[in-house]
Write a structure and sequence with these properties.
With about 400 residues, the chain is an alpha/beta fold. The chain is built from 13 helices and 19 strands. The chain has two domains: about 170 residues, Rossmann fold; about 210 residues, Rossmann fold, CATH 3.40.50. An eight-stranded mixed β-sheet has the order 12-11-8-13-16-17-18-19, with helices on both faces. Strands 2-1-3-4-5 form a five-stranded parallel β-sheet, sandwiched between helices. Strands 6-7 form a two-stranded antiparallel ribbon. The longest helix has 18 residues. It starts with a strand and ends with a helix. About 45% of the residues are buried. Its EC number is 4.1.1.36, 6.3.2.5. This is Coenzyme A biosynthesis bifunctional protein CoaBC. Its cofactor is FMN; Mg(2+).
């Protein structure tokens, strides 16, 4: 694959060297196109040695090859890392004042940009507007990682690790490779917008303690990755996760069930598919203490009064039905059997009660599902079709769920 790696002028440019090495060692044909300011951090010699190709920054170099047009035309993938605030602004504004921005304007291939900048720059309204503009044009803009920045500061703005960027780039380039459901328009979910929740909510008791559950978020993250490979754009509403959020999603972080409900309601109207894979707490403390509850021998232990959390899945179904849209809604049910009924019986009752089109049911426990890399689920459908049992890795289960979603959309 012919890959153009663009490098912006930030201290994180040194990490792009490892990214170039990952592409070349995987057998790809790599051309590095730094900005002039990027060369103040990492010189031409490094990029030429790693890529085996001459490195140019100006449209007035290699004019005889019409290089400023050829690069974008011939590229099968463009990855920009780091994408600085300035570079995002120039790309969003359609500037063509160096070789890299010319290549971006000429590109008809997938484009992925991995931002890196100070937290205040990332959060600035101008940068946020530029990111939204680029995403609206089909560019995949990764959310930066949180961590140590230049100097003593920490926060969102750190460049994602080269391995994460490499994985996201390959997933973007291979969206046409989802097995039997492959289509000529970029994948079975090409152009679809998926709103997906994942992870376990945490309900604060005091500043130290919370009510929570054992969800790791692994299955939700796997479904997000599978949906991206299938061509969808994914908004990922993340409660507590034991794994990094997938590269390539629009990330929305929440903690509590109420915060998750608000995030989903705010974004649901724009979604073609809603997947509620988050493990949402059924109850929360009626009172949140603003200081740590002390354990004292002279005072009786105070009981924790609980109140119900909103049923987010039911609310989303009701909103969809009231709007009269064709939105597809997928629920998840983590169930245990008891003397009254087995897991599937409880799953069928929940499907009836919730009103969603598909319900993914799995049996859970201290040694099942939560935190593990394997899963075993049964997909139930509102239309009464035969239940589908899927067992294997969480990635394999995710592929099956995405294929079932694609088929349900096709049936409509």
């Amino acid at each position: 694959m012919r890959v153009v790696v663009g490098v912006g002028g930030g201290i994180a440019a040194y990490k792009a060297a490892s990214l170039v090495r990952l592409f070349t060692e995987a057998g790809h044909d790599v051309t590095v196109v730094p900005t002039e300011s990027a060369l103040a951090f990492v010189g031409k010699a490094t990029w030429e040695a790693l890529s085996g190709k001459p490195v140019r920054t100006s449209v007035f170099e290699a004019v005889e090859t019409v290089n400023h047009v050829r690069l974008g035309h011939e590229a099968e993938l463009i990855v920009v890392a780091p994408a600085t605030a300035d570079l995002l602004a120039r790309a969003a504004g359609g500037h063509a004042d160096d070789l890299l921005t010319n290549a971006l304007l000429m590109a008809r291939c997938p484009v992925l940009m991995a931002p890196a900048m100070h937290t205040e720059m990332w959060r600035h309204p101008a940068t946020r507007a530029n990111v939204e503009t680029l995403r609206s044009r089909g560019v995949v803009v990764l959310d930066p990682a949180e961590g140590r920045l230049t100097g003593k500061d920490s926060g969102p703005g750190r460049l994602r690790e080269p391995e994460e960027i490499f994985s996201a780039a390959l997933a973007l380039a291979s969206r046409r490779e989802l097995g039997d459901d492959q289509t000529d328009d970029g994948g079975p979910l090409a152009g679809k917008r998926i709103l997906l929740s994942a992870g376990g909510t945490r309900e604060p008791i005091d500043p130290v303690r919370f009510l929570g559950n054992r969800s790791s978020g692994k299955q939700g993250a796997a479904i997000a990755r599978a949906a991206l490979r299938a061509g969808a754009s994914v908004t990922f509403v993340a409660a507590h996760l034991d794994v990094p959020p997938p590269a390539g999603v629009e990330l929305v972080k929440v903690e509590t069930a109420v915060e998750l409900r608000d995030a989903m309601v705010e974004r649901v109207a724009a979604a073609d598919v809603v997947v509620m894979s988050a493990a949402v707490a059924d109850f929360r403390p009626a009172r949140r203490h603003h200081s740590k509850i002390k354990k004292r021998d002279d005072v009786p232990d105070a009981p924790i009064e609980l109140v119900r959390n909103p049923d987010i899945l039911v609310e989303l179904v009701r909103r969809r039905d009231a709007a009269g849209t064709q939105q597809l809604i997928v629920g998840f049910a983590a169930e245990t059997g008891d003397n009254g009924a087995d897991v599937l019986a409880y799953g069928r009752a929940k499907l009836e009660r919730k009103g969603c089109e598909l319900l993914v049911v799995n049996e859970v426990g201290t040694d099942r599902v939560f935190g593990l890399d394997e899963n075993s689920v049964t997909i139930l459908a509102k239309d009464g079709s035969q239940p589908q049992h899927v067992a294997g890795s969480k990635d394999e289960v995710a592929e099956a769920v995405v294929v079932r979603i694609a088929r349900a959309l096709d049936a409509r």
